[in-house]
Amino acid sequence: MKWIEPKVEEYEHLKPLPAWISVLVFLGSFVLCFIFTVLNWKQGKPVISAEFFVRILLLPLLFGGVACSVLYLPYEDWNERVDLWNNLCLRAYENWRWWAQERVAIIGSVTLTPEKDLGVRMLGLEGSPPTNAGKNLPLATERKEGSVSRVQQVLEQLVTPFAPYMTTSAASHTFSIVVQSEREEDLNDLRALLRTLVPHDFGFVQISRAAEPLDMGRVEQWLSGDRMPDYRLVLAYQLHSTGKEPTCSEAGVALLFASRTVVASSKGRLKPEAWLFRPVPATMDSVFEALKTMLAAQQTPNERIKHLWLTHVPGPGKHATLTAVKDNDLKLAAHDLDTAIGNPGPVNALLVQALAAQMVQHGQGTQLIATPHKARVMLNLLGTNVAPIQRVEERLPSMIGIGFTCMLLCLAGLVLLMLKDVGASAAWFIGVFAGSIVFLAVNAFGSFVRRGQVEHDFYRKLPW
User: Fold this and answer.
1) pTM of the model as a whole
2) pLDDT tens digit string along 97-144?
3) Within the chain, which residue ranges are assigned CATH 3.40.47.10?
4) N or C: which end of the chain has fewer CB within 10 A?
5) Is the domain defined by 102-383 classed in CATH 3.40.47.10?
């Protein structure tokens, strides 16, 4: 599936023939059969007899039944197709919403920034919003003197809160750590730290390094292709180097992700800080359409979206995002992380996710986030509310059509009366019954063939 709304037009049912047409058909059958019977009745043959009443009552009923069934068959066939088609429309939309609602849980987060209490200040909940646009600020935390490097100090602050999860998951869950770092040696610092935090062998923890910035494209890979482990701790930091001119403000972030399976199997013991829903990529000139499609998917109740976060988004993308929010009738407070802490760096895409998740815990509703991904803007939602999806049962084709069955029974009745009139043997009567069953089976098979044709036509019209 793709981020394209499965808009396929539903068909309308045809109304059956008015009842008065059926009445006229039956009246005409009774009149014709009565006239034909009277004109061809043998002289001296008693009128009060079973044969006479069969010809003036039963025969017109059977003839009228065949005629009305033939008139009704096109309506029955079309309406069956409409039921199958419209059911496919509903199910395609349901499946698309399930796909769009794929998500990972943020169990906890740690943020290290140049400004203390950054999230609540940016939202105006406490203090005044910080303004540091264009600056390259150091972390607000104090540096510890001694043999411990700054990377080790930062790793200790980021990893320590999540050590209990590693301890409890050793026996029953998979756990991985991804470090966004330019140096391979940073992994050695991480392993040394884990030896002190995890009392037993931490060999079950898979550790890897990502040289490129981690962004929402990596989350999309977890949801679409790469198997998501039970727990995944993502660490990222950007620190000033001695003797080099800084290009961004310092920052550090740790995000502990968990799969939906782990959260569901915990039976309420594991409560996410927020759900991170499947992100939507958009080019600079298609942000409006991307946001409109995201809202149509209803990952979360749209009225719960309260804030917009931006970071590191190029000027055209930032302007396009703000305009798209307005044009989609969203009244959101916008918060630019780059204005708050200065020039952005490679960890900002993760940092803004962590800050937004923390604000969800402050009762600030669902958060809309815009971050860069390659040459695009990536939109994603963070929140605890998941919009319900109504289940649509699969529409199976009708095995026995009413119109076809009535026509077949009436025809069989006419043939049986004709065979009785000519004195046919019992084998003919058995043949009529066997033939009727065969025709019913053929009609049922035709219903499945029709279903296949409808599905083929439907999936050809899907935009994927």
Assistant:
1) 0.85
2) 999 999 999 999 999 999 999 999 999 999 899 999 999 999 987 666
3) 102-383
4) C
5) yes
